[in-house]
Design a protein that fits this description.
The chain has 197 residues and is α+β, with helices and mostly antiparallel strands. It folds into 2 domains: 3-74, Winged helix-like DNA-binding domain superfamily/Winged helix DNA-binding domain (Arc Repressor Mutant, subunit A), CATH 1.10.10.10; 92-196, Beta Polymerase, domain 2. It contains 11 helices and 7 strands. The chain has a 4-stranded mixed sheet. α2 crosses α5 (81-91), α5 packs across α6 and α6 (93-100) runs antiparallel to α8. It is elongated.
């Protein structure tokens, strides 16, 4: 088990709560009803209902009745949403695997997930999901990407550039780099201070 997963299990005592938060954070636009969540989480209905009630009470999720079912969805305007999304994207899914496989990926200076990936929100015509800077083993990165494309059922758009090119384009005010930098990204590898200087 990775350090990130252990950290989340230490911070969030309830395994059902972790499963619920993981579902909502990694699928921010998806709605789910109680019985669907019971099947997806493989947990007892009362435990799922209790955790949904707690998450709704603190306004991390909202509910809406459609027909005779109550559907739950992530509240993207919650003040802690960015931090929580960052926790979960660094622990699970594509982000978690990139962190875990960092040594096999080569010399990674920075790796980040854009809001296109984390929230399904696109910045202008920007459709990059993953941005990686460094000397990268592309074969290893492509294996990770393909695995997660199969898992999420869509193509993952990514860009890889070497660190010297990144610094040069940043100094020149390159529009593509500027567009990446001003987004609310989840920084997987590297320090934010080094990324922006």
């Amino acid at each position: 088990m990775s350090l990130q997963n252990l950290t989340l299990e230490s911070l969030f005592v309830s395994k059902v709560r972790i499963k619920a938060l993981k579902f909502f954070m990694l699928n921010p636009s998806r709605e789910i009803h109680l019985r669907g969540a019971v099947r997806a989480f493989e947990e007892e209905i009362n435990a799922v209902r209790r955790e949904f009630s707690r998450l709704e009470k603190v306004q991390l999720i909202t509910s809406d009745t459609k027909g005779n079912r109550l559907y739950f969805k992530l509240n993207l305007s919650h003040p802690f949403i960015n931090e929580l999304m960052s926790f979960f994207h660094k622990s699970y899914g594509l982000g978690g695997e990139i962190i875990e496989m960092q040594d096999k990926l080569g010399d990674v200076a920075f790796a980040l997930l854009t809001p296109a990936f984390t929230r399904g929100m696109y910045f202008g015509d920007q459709i990059i999901d993953l941005f990686v800077v460094g000397k990268i083993n592309l074969r290893e990165l492509q294996k990770i990407i393909h695995h997660h494309e199969d898992e999420i059922g869509r193509e993952i758009n990514y860009t890889v550039i070497e660190e010297n090119e990144f610094k040069l384009r940043k100094r020149r005010g390159d529009q593509f780099i500027n567009n990446i930098m001003i987004q609310d990204n989840v920084l997987l590898i590297g320090r934010h201070e080094d990324l922006i200087k």
